């Protein structure tokens, strides 16, 4: 990691510290699982690093302009979260030692990254996803040795891309999404960068992590965009 800027290396240290101390997701009551014992365990890889040489468009950000996070677009054919932007990840298998191993394995299967180039930094508390009855553990990780990534199985993933963290934090790119659940209107964090809308589980994880890391910038919390 000697070729990285001090700011990017500093982000890695802050992520390590976040994994060590944990965080409170502040889950909305409608996201609480009725019976967590029946939920299926899953994990996602929240992969940060300098994923390519193109810096963010945002100038003078609080984070390094070359700090990115890896995301993918899910297939429209999927039963849950179809077409949404997501982290690589999926359900734990019996062969997985735990969430860390599951997140990396799923990322290899979905986007083709080389596992040896990924440093797992730790785990964050599991977050419930009631619509699919999953309990999902976010696994923050660091990109130590870049490798080619692309959608491997188009039945699950149709696009893989990096997003500069500074662009996600840009106040003009932040908003909320409102949707109905069990007869109640729920508002969750969203990011809109270059026409790409990040919301739902992925938006919640990124927003809460940015808050806990002290990276977030004040934005118009009353701005609402339409879910896609």
Automatic annotation (TrEMBL):
Coiled coil: none annotated. Residues 38-185 form the Nudix hydrolase domain. Pfam families: NUDIX (PF00293). The keyword Magnesium applies. Keywords: Hydrolase, Magnesium, Manganese, Metal-binding. Its cofactor is Mn(2+); Mg(2+). This is 8-oxo-dGTP pyrophosphatase MutT (NUDIX family). It comes from Cellulomonas humilata.
